[in-house]
Amino acid sequence: MSQHARNLSRRDLLRAAAAAAAAGTLASCGKNNDDGADPNGVVTLDLWHGQVDLGKAAIDSLIAAFNQSHPKIKVVGGGGGVTADSMLQKVTAGLAAGSYPDIAYIFGSDLASLTKSPKVADLTGQLKIDDYWPAAKDAVSVKGKVRAAPALLDSLCVVYNKKLFAAAGVAPPKPGWTWDDFVATSKQLTNPAKGIFGTGWPGVGDEDTVWRIWPMIWDLGGDVVSGDGKKVGFDTVGAQALQTLDKLRSDKSLYVDPKPGSEQLYQVFLGGRMGMVATGPWQLPELKDNGLEYGVVPLPSYSGKPITISGPDTWTIFDNGKAKVKAATEFVSWLADPAQDIQWDIKGGSLPITKATAELPAWKKHSAETNGLEVFVTALDTAKVRPTITTYPQISQHVGEAIAAVLLGKQSPADALKQAVDQCNQVLAVPS
């Protein structure tokens, strides 16, 4: 991985494969038998953030600043021995063993299932939740309660390589374009002789594969689940979205990343061999560092109306005693203050967590100086988030298998959809 590898956040998504878990890490961290403070009244917090490179440098700097200004709290970052994409499994194992961190970086799509553990702290009334963007607020709310603090906010847009468009004689995409436009443009950009693909998509079948399809589903009038939560909401429209992917595959204009984390997909794009890729603002620092001439446009749609997805990540707090929960809440609240949030946003590739940060002169200056960043911010106006329901990970697994089957040409869109719908409906039929 390069020195300037992207922040492994999200949604997220778009993350490197997990590093080998450090043996013995769980045993040395986590649960205390007392209330959490030492004889001098100092509370030590174990933070498992899973960030690497740019993201790690940003959070480490903030931790150092917090420790200096809060002498009664000492945050120790870097525990867990895994990157963010494997944090859920590591934390889940820790909860089962009775040895877990005080704070962990948890993807929003995993939060609801994790809250089944009574050790996940309830932060209702403890955070200035109304200061957050709606997408961030929705992502940390489970059954009407605040179960985490927003850690990172993003949106999904399309980044394109200007040089490849010029070389192929193709006009750059514009807001309001359609998925038919996207498919046609991808075909025009593809050049097998030069190893150039029009676009790419993660093909493992994990959440990185899945979350990109939800804007397509929403735009077609569908949803992840129905209004009553008893069945899926994509059964009538999912085939059209999968047919779009199948057309990209049959046109041979799609690079399908065969490995978890999408690292290869982004290396192909950064290497100048891919015309367009759906990504988030975390990618921009690396694009700038690599000197790639790029443009950013909103996602295409079927309706011509803008819609996208935001995949906020969270700081989830675990109950290791009242003193630790209080100190951890103070730390994550401090991170959301504009003075700190602006540092994380600029260095780590997040969008402002709060509206107040977005109004800072420093953010406006950064946004004006960062090509395409404002497109991601504007996209928040039409961004939706995945439902914070405990069954989402199972739904994602089945939908991911369907998408991967289509991307690899193993199943038709109709057959893949039917199988996923049947499997997901069985999941939803079981009372949670």
TrEMBL record:
It holds the Pfam family SBP_bac_8. Gene3D superfamilies: Periplasmic binding protein-like II. CDD domains: PBP2_UgpB (cd14748). This is Carbohydrate ABC transporter substrate-binding protein (CUT1 family). SUPFAM superfamilies: Periplasmic binding protein-like II. It comes from the Bacteria.
